[in-house]
Amino acid sequence: MGAAGLLLATPAQASPKEDPTTLTDPTTLTGAEIKRIREQQAPKPAWKIAVDFAMSKRGTPYVWGGASPSGYDCSGLMLRAYEHGGIELPRTAAEQYGAFSKKIAWKDLKPGDLVFFHGLGHVGMISRPGYMVHSPHTGDVVKEERLSDWRRESFVGAVRPDPKGVRLWARLKEQRSAPAPATFKATL
Questions:
Q1: Which residue, 4, 75, 169, 176, has most beta carbons within 10 Å?
Q2: How many helices, marked H, and strands, marked E, lie in the chain?
Q3: Mean pLDDT throughout 122-141?
Q4: In the predicted model, is pLDDT for residue 175 greater than 90?
Q5: Beta carbons within 8 Å of 38's beta carbon, 6+ residues apart
Q6: Looking at the record's lineage, which domain of life comes first (predicted)?
Q7: Could you list the active site residues?
Q8: How many Å apart are CA 128 and CA 123, to the nearest integer?
Q9: What is the value of pTM for the model shown?
Q10: Which of 178, 116, 174 is CA-nearest to residue 147?
Q11: Which of 77, 85, 45 lies closest to 58, judged by CA?
């Protein structure tokens, strides 16, 4: 370490055009900058990728049996959304519901959860608290919709395809609300 507590490049480490004595100015990273960098480097959970994918398809027409950019049915949209997040789902709504042993109650819904209605005849995905994204029926398009009383009455159950990602996201949210770490000094 140099006299000022800085790491200096030795002539062998310095590039031919660099004078090692000019590397005495530290680069200071604030706690807020460190926090921002950590957040940018945090892995994005599968459920978040799935929600982003499904939301990006809003306006795409409903196509019975569809699972492509030209059109989606309800389960085809969920299939492709989670596929983008690295999680394989079965093809139909009933199979998607049956693929997970743990069921989620209405009061415990979180973004990314798959919600099932009408005797497992329809599936959507929680996009944010109180809303779902889905491909409703022939003649309609992929859209985000508020979870209404009518939806609550026809609710069969829900599953969480990415429980580890939900826990990870909760930890990341805690870290975001925590104070920034102390300022560090780094040298280049």
A1: 75
A2: 6, 9
A3: 98
A4: no
A5: 175
A6: Bacteria
A7: 74, 122, 134
A8: 16
A9: 0.73
A10: 116
A11: 77
